[in-house]
Design goal:
The complex is a heterodimer of chains A (359) and B (428). Chain A is an all-alpha fold and 359 residues long. Chain A is built from 14 helices and no strands. Chain B is an alpha/beta fold and 428 residues long. In chain B, helix 13 links the parallel strand 14 and strand 15. Chain B is globular and about 60 Å long. Classes of the chains: A mainly alpha (359), B alpha/beta (428).
Chain lengths: 359, 428
């Protein structure tokens, strides 16, 4: 028998033979998301959503133009607004990547919220050892939390789409117990923890309000792209997601793949929680996760499961949340409009997909 | 029904391939029409247009109002989680209440009136053999009483006996006025059943005839002569023996496991796959388990560490635009060649080939056979699971019969030639 191939990374495909002017080459280069069409679809969905939101505002007596202008200036119109948007984008980007990796492997990790929370909890506990150990602890905790679901899948075939959601509730209540009990701040004024003993350093200059987490998040999406499209691991992961039955016949250990994809996915969501704690809130409190885990699903779907497109997608949702905050302050429209926007974008995308399948 | 000047292309930009090119065709009531041609000749595309599943780029489909088309696809459109009875009940679109008992009673009636044999309607479709699934598809199509019935390679998963059964059903249906279109590339059965034969090649109709010989059809189908017969093979018995249950395979040898589909072949292949994860593996269900359609040829090959996709395309004469073409865009035969390149190029010591030529045309079939012979000659131990007896006798050095999950004793092909039919039927 042949010895198993070394687990070392190797390029997923031979280096592209660059034939200048050859359109097919570019179109089918899976490394850059099979061309511009998905990106265009995403952009169109975004525009459509913004228009729809503005028009529905008109139904309640607001001027669509005014709404649009508040939404835009409130999210990217000033350095301050842009900073707010970027701060919101960082956790969204990481939870989005978490979902991208899981869904690419065909694993339904809906547990970003829970992994986000346990990541932050671990980061808080490990913060006394310094910044790097704290972030590593966040990733490890997220991976471990997600692995509960994948191991239950292996042992008892429990569907991860359910177990990950259930684990979210456990994590939410675990956090609630921690901030009211063992981890409650020393002064015991509010149900919140003491500040973390490490913080992410700030960026300088114009964006002095921003923390280094943004660089980590962008790095993570490049890393996820590299993993998915330039390594053997990514090749097998995608093969499993596309057609696990065929992947088995092509020699992929589908069960191991499931466990690894879930762990990587959980690590990304855990890191998001750690960064949010060490960069923004500094403390944990009950509503700390604020739906970032769930929003990651929308981010990933808008990015059409491409890790680099996730950057743009996370930015859009970050802007939507920040802009919606401004709408609430100046036009007295509920900030829930941001959540509405998330839903509409996904529905618009599904509409596009349907139209495409009919052609 | 009349098709007039139909043209259909696939692909985008510079990457267009014309699947059907200016084809006109009339289908008469009560006739059995065979549409034959190599893989990728455009047979299936043309028929999908006729059935209204695809719209043509140019040309017209003329159908009378009461025309109702049944289409049995090469791939299964069944819900694996549901039972036979439940799958048949899906034909009924109206809202209604029904108990499991009612559904099963109706299913039995439907199966009886179709004239096809299929037992135990409470079984889940996922547990059926490929042959049984294809029978179920047929029953489903016949149950709607279509005025035109299109069958895409229906015999590729049937035993000779089952094929005979199918032909009987086809003749009965035709006699009652149903038009039957039969897509195939098995010449003997086409000659036996069809009243009219249309030969397609690269999207065009190249021949239409009522009287044909196997030779004239083969010539019309393939532009080039078939591959020359292989030379005599050196046979060396290896020393390493592996056993799996009571299967023994030897290096330099092709062992054929033959049997009627659904006698435990899938389970055997699955077990072998799990036992020998590094063996060369050619899966039984080509459309589901062959290539990963959404990935490129290069990526599919890389799954087994096969790097030089450009060379593989040449070596295995895969008809493709290049290594970055999506494997799903290739024709069935060329997808199977990608699987061969992926599984055989790393020279595995054991090869498990399950129904490796099912549904392939003459050229692709002889290519697969050639590759298996070469691999055996190079020292591989090959386990060929097949329901095609001709294939078994052509390739095998030794044979075993599988019947109801049990393997017979090992036989030489000479011994097998007299006993195999009885063993397959469970008589011996």
């Amino acid at each position: 028998m042949k010895a198993p191939r070394s687990a070392g990374f190797q390029p997923a495909a031979p280096p592209p033979s660059r034939r200048p002017g050859s359109r097919d080459n570019r179109r089918q280069d899976a490394g850059v998301a099979a061309g511009w069409k998905p990106a265009l679809r995403g952009a169109a969905a975004v525009l459509f959503t913004i228009l729809l939101l503005a028009l529905s505002g008109a139904a309640f007596g607001h001027s669509p133009r005014e709404l649009l202008s508040i939404l835009i200036t409130g999210s990217v119109g000033s350095t301050f607004a842009l900073q707010g948007t970027l701060l919101k984008s960082v956790p969204l980007l990481l939870t989005g990547l978490s979902v991208v990796i899981a869904f690419r492997a065909g694993v339904w990790n809906i547990g970003g919220e829970g992994q986000f929370i346990v990541g932050a909890l671990a980061a808080l506990l490990a913060s006394r050892f310094g910044l790097v150990p704290s972030l590593l602890a966040a990733m490890l905790a997220g991976a471990a939390w997600a692995s509960i679901a994948s191991l239950m899948r292996l042992w008892r075939n429990a569907p991860e789409v359910l177990t990950t959601i259930l684990l979210n509730f456990i994590a939410i209540h675990l956090l609630g117990w921690c901030v009211n009990g063992p981890l409650r701040e020393r002064t015991a004024m509010y149900p919140q923890t003491d500040v973390a003993l490490a913080t992410l350093p700030r960026l300088g200059g114009l964006f002095s309000g921003l923390h280094m987490g943004i660089l980590l998040a962008v790095l993570a999406s490049v890393g996820a792209w590299w993993l998915l499209y330039r390594t053997n691991e990514g090749l097998r992961l995608r093969a499993t997601g596309f057609n696990s039955s065929a992947a088995k016949w092509a020699g992929v250990n589908v069960r191991a793949q499931l466990v690894r994809a879930m762990a990587i996915s959980g690590a990304a969501a855990g890191l998001a929680g750690g960064i949010e704690l060490l960069g923004v809130t500094n403390r944990l409190f009950e509503r700390f996760a604020a739906g970032y885990g769930y929003s990651g699903i929308a981010v990933a779907l808008l990015a059409q499961l491409h890790p680099l497109a996730t950057i743009g997608s996370a930015f859009f949702f970050g802007a939507l949340v920040t802009g919606a905050g401004e709408l609430q302050r100046t036009a007295n429209i509920s900030a829930a409009v941001a959540t509405l926007g998330q839903a509409v974008v996904i529905l618009v995308l599904i509409g596009f997909e349907y139209a495409r399948s009919r052609r | 029904m009349r098709l007039s000047r139909i043209t259909k292309s696939f692909g985008t930009h510079s990457n267009v391939s014309r699947a059907v090119d200016d084809v006109s065709l009339t289908i008469e009531r009560g006739e059995i029409l065979a549409v034959i041609g190599e893989n990728g000749a455009g047979k299936t595309t043309l028929m999908r247009i006729a059935a209204g599943e695809l719209s043509p780029d140019a040309g017209e489909v003329l159908r009378s109002a009461q025309d109702d088309i049944g289409f049995v696809h090469q791939h299964f459109l069944l819900v694996p989680e549901l039972t036979i009875a439940e799958n048949l009940a899906l034909i009924e679109r109206r809202f209604r209440f029904a108990t499991r008992k009612t559904l099963e009673r109706e299913a039995v009636r439907m199966i009886e009136s179709s004239g096809i044999e299929l037992h135990e309607v409470s079984r889940r479709v996922a547990d059926l053999s490929v042959g049984e699934k294809s029978k179920l598809e047929l029953i489903k199509a016949i149950a709607t009483k279509p005025s035109t019935l299109i069958l895409d390679e229906p015999t590729s998963v049937l035993t000779p006996h089952e094929s005979e059964e199918l032909f009987r059903v086809m003749r009965t249906l035709a006699a009652s006025g149903t038009a039957i279109v039969f897509i195939s590339h098995k010449l003997p059965e086409v000659l036996a059943i069809a009243e009219r034969i249309v030969v397609m090649r690269t999207g065009k109709v190249v021949m239409e005839t009522r009287e044909a010989t196997a030779e004239s059809l083969a010539r019309a189908m393939t532009p080039q002569p078939p591959l020359p017969a292989h030379g005599e093979r050196v046979r060396v018995r290896g020393t390493l023996a592996l056993s799996h249950g009571n299967v023994q395979i030897h290096h330099h040898e092709i062992l054929a496991i033959v049997g009627v589909a659904g006698n435990g072949q899938s389970e055997l292949a699955e077990e072998l796959r799990a036992r020998f994860p590094h063996a060369g593996q050619i899966p039984e269900d080509r459309t589901r388990d062959g290539v990963i359609a959404q990935m490129t040829i290069a990526e599919n090959l890389a799954l087994r560490g096969v790097r030089d996709a450009e060379r593989m395309i040449e070596l295995y004469s895969i008809r493709a635009l290049g290594p970055r073409q999506l494997a799903g865009d290739l024709s069935g035969g060329n997808q199977q060649k990608v699987v061969l390149a992926r599984e055989l190029d790393r020279r595995p010591q054991i090869i498990i080939a399950a129904e490796p030529t099912r549904g392939l045309d003459i050229e692709a079939t002889s290519f697969v056979h050639e590759r298996l012979r070469v691999a055996a000659a190079a020292g591989a131990a090959i386990l060929l699971i097949t329901s095609d007896l001709d294939e078994a006798f052509e390739l095998a050095d030794a044979m075993q019969v599988i019947y109801r999950g049990k393997l017979s004793a090992r036989m030489t092909p000479e011994e097998a030639s007299s006993r195999v039919a009885n063993l397959m039927a469970g008589v011996a």
